[in-house]
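Q: Hi! Curious about what SMC-Scp complex subunit ScpB looks like structurally. Here's the sequence.
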Amino acid sequence: MTLNKLDIITGMLYATGDEGIDSETLSEIIQLTPIQIDDLVKTFEHDILDIRKLGDKYFLMTNEKLNPYLQHLVTNSKHKKLTQASMESLAIIAYNQPITRHEVEIARGVNSDGPIKTLLEKGLIESVQQKDMRAQQLITTQEFLRTFGLKSLDDLPNDEHGTTETEEIEQFFKNLESEE
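A: Let's find out. The predicted structure is below.
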């Protein structure tokens, strides 16, 4: 029995789970160009699963049909939303990255060690060393993009249409449900 390339991609994405697979790796393994992979993935049809590209990686994810059941699972588990302090810190980092811990604290007006530690533990942000900078810089991760269903940081809400940026950002970050 010979598997078609879409079946191979689906199986690989299932096997990698939350890690996903970047397009370059898929291109090498499947021997297709990234554009051919994009086109092939668009043909994927399943009752409850989707293949989505978030950031530079592909993931096998459940689709909206399963949301009521997953919502019940999440609300009856030990998963909790991020605290308001963590969400504020995450928004500041997402919109101003790279940014130092001190700059986050200046923006929030309070010590942010706890929220930043939580975000680091959840893998939503990471600390990197920039050339010619003494302080570590905080940036968002691929996990941040995956968690929020973003293809890139360009998909973050912005204020270019005259909407209230604060309300839009708050609504966006209220959707995050993670383990605390």
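A: A fun detail: Strands lie at 21-22, 49-54, 57-62, 80-81, 125-129, 136-140, 177-178.
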